[in-house]
Amino acid sequence: MTQPADDLQTLLIGAVPNLRAFANSLCGDPTRADDLVQDTLVKAWTNLESFEKGSNLKAWLFTILRNTYFSELRKRRREVEDADNALAERMSILPDQHIHMDLIDFKKAFGTLSDDQKEVLLLVGAEGFSYEEAAEITGAAVGTVKSRVNRARVALTKALGLESGEDFTSNPEFMGLVRLGQTAVRS
Amino acid sequence: MGAGSASKQGEISTTQTQLPAELQGQIGKRLREAYNELVSEPVPDRFVQLLRQLKQREDQGRGGKT
């Protein structure tokens, strides 16, 4: 039996908005993001036999996209810094004029995260993938994903100036810093 | 949820700051707002065209065999 290509076409088109949002948030360059999505669609279409029937198509597509992105990034090491700078720009320049200031601040803060942190935060926090799915997509251990998500959240909170000191008192590392600070004040 | 949930991965969480649920909620909300804005952008025609071409090429390949 041949595979129902019409359905595949529909499914792939249906996934494009999310693939584009993910690619855009990750690479920060709309043109490059669309090229990434195009590469992903072509690879998905031509490697359909490697997709396990019954598994999560969206997760598979996200895997292809992020693998394409990171292997390109490795190839173009020298451009990494430019790309990182562009990330913050893309997230902050959006045509919508009704965006609340909060959201602009958020996009700037998001731009300060590392690629690893962005990736897992987008997968888990924005796309709603489980930690296990995100681990499979990124090829990292579940514990690593959880720890990256947490670190990304903490970094965002700090960048946004949202932290309220009292909430960190249970953290030994933080309290260590506080004690260090107190000693410094006294001496 | 909360107190007990993170205790299982001691080696991961002990050295980390765990954000309070309220802050996590705020961060998550803003992230989804920013992200959904991107998701709601209309799909450029190039992707519809691309998939049509891929489908056509496949149909032609199959047609050649029969």
Oligomeric state of this protein:
heterodimer
The total strand number of chain B stands at: 0
Give a short account of the largest sheet of chain A. none
Tell me the structural class of chain A.
mainly alpha
What's the mean pLDDT score of chain A? Answer: 80
Encode the helix/strand succession of chain B as letters.
HHH
Order of helices and strands of chain A: HHHHHHHHH
The number of distinct helices of chain B, counting runs of at least 4 residues, comes to: 3
Helix coverage percent of chain A: over 70%
Helix content class of chain B:
55-70%
The low-confidence runs of chain A, each spanning 5 or more residues with pLDDT under 50, are 93-99, 165-172, 174-187
**First and last CA, distance of chain B:** 60 Å
Largest interface: A-B, 52 and 41 residues
The Rg value of chain A, from CA coordinates, equals 20 Å
Q: Uncertain segments of chain B of ≥5 residues (pLDDT<50)? A: 1-15
- Sheet having the most strands of chain B: none
Tell me the fraction of residues in β-strands of chain A, as a range.
under 5%
Descriptive overview:
The complex is a heterodimer of chains A (187) and B (66). Chain A has 187 residues and is mostly helical. In chain A, 73% of the residues lie in helices and 0% in strands. Chain A contains nine helices and no strands. In chain A, helix 3 packs across helix 7 and helix 6 crosses helix 8. The longest helix of chain A is centred in the N-terminal third of the chain and has 23 residues, at 5-27. Chain B is 67% helix and 0% strand.
